Amino acid sequence: MRKFDTVDQLVNVLKPEQPIYCIRPKTVKNSVEFFKKNFPGKVLYAVKTNPNEKIIKIIINSGVNNFDVASINEIKLIKKIDDRVKVYFMHTIKSRESIREAYYKYNVKDFALDTKEELLKILEATNNAKDINLYVRIAISNEHAEIDLSRKFGASASEALGLLRLSKEHGKKVGLSFHVGSQCMDKISFSKGIVEVGNIIKKTKIVPDVINIGGGFPSIYPDLIPEPLENYMKEIKKGLAELKLEKMPEIFCEPGRALVAESGSTIVKILLKKKQKLYINDGTYGSLFDAGVPNFVLPSKMITNGRVISKKLTPFSFYGPTCDSLDFMKGPFLLPNNIKEGDYIELGQLGAYGTTFRTKFNGFYSDAIYQVDDKPILSMYDEKVKFKYLVA
Out of 69, 92, 241, 344, which residue is the most buried by the measure of CB atoms under 10 Å away? Predict the structure, then answer.
């Protein structure tokens, strides 16, 4: 992978006609180090967020050797990169074939579920194996999340009681898990989830071997500025302490966005300026899905290449290059008023889901990836970067 010191240097040298995706390894190392230092348990990286092999290798080399996977192909990817790491099949709905292959071919022993039917499927596919670990996922409120996952996954509190008892009968170890939703903007969601876990423990008299508090840890965006992640960690530790258990179970988390969002950005070129709408060469069918469907406002920066730019910032919306009018990103993206056709823009926080959602719709596709060593546009882990962007 070709390397550049900065995004500006990259654009000056390559003058790219297609979108360019940038990776910043240092930011991954920083975020992994934060979670290792501050989270009171085991960190499982959520592979779905960014399955790029270079990113996975950086995460492993930074000391995270446990992975939350959702498919047999993610298992194959991780095991190909490093067969020594451990994977956890945490998607609650899996095919029998995937369960069987995961268990017998890849030695996966950890499986999530949220229904009796899924439990029976796991048991049958593994021939009633005695060495599997079963994690019952409970549904909790996702009221503070930007993307709600509770409608699709999780057993109700009453259903979880029976599922935990059944899992205890059949699993070598049992766990209780929940997920507060993607990009959770209030730390209280985690302590509320822990309270739900505590209620199930009281009613069943079963203390699980593992409490998995899932993912949902936020990154930072111009219109979504969460509390410092240190506050989330304190809230989690406080909630666990208030369970008042004689022996604390092992604690898991499954961060994705918070680990890798800052590591990626996309450089786009303006094809046309129409008043306050910019037509660019990447969009929601490419690496900018988050800016379209869930309407995340991505941090943006015009790459000047020495050109004099206006100090007046104007809110722009983007249209992607496809013929579909759904290829629209409302923003607002604040950029210099005199920005024009042919100019380049860097859009940040795309280490999370940026490359994952890309399609080849209309023939528009770019897999150009380069490494840059400058700092991200906006950061949860670097107050100087955060302050510089927010006051600019």
Answer: 69
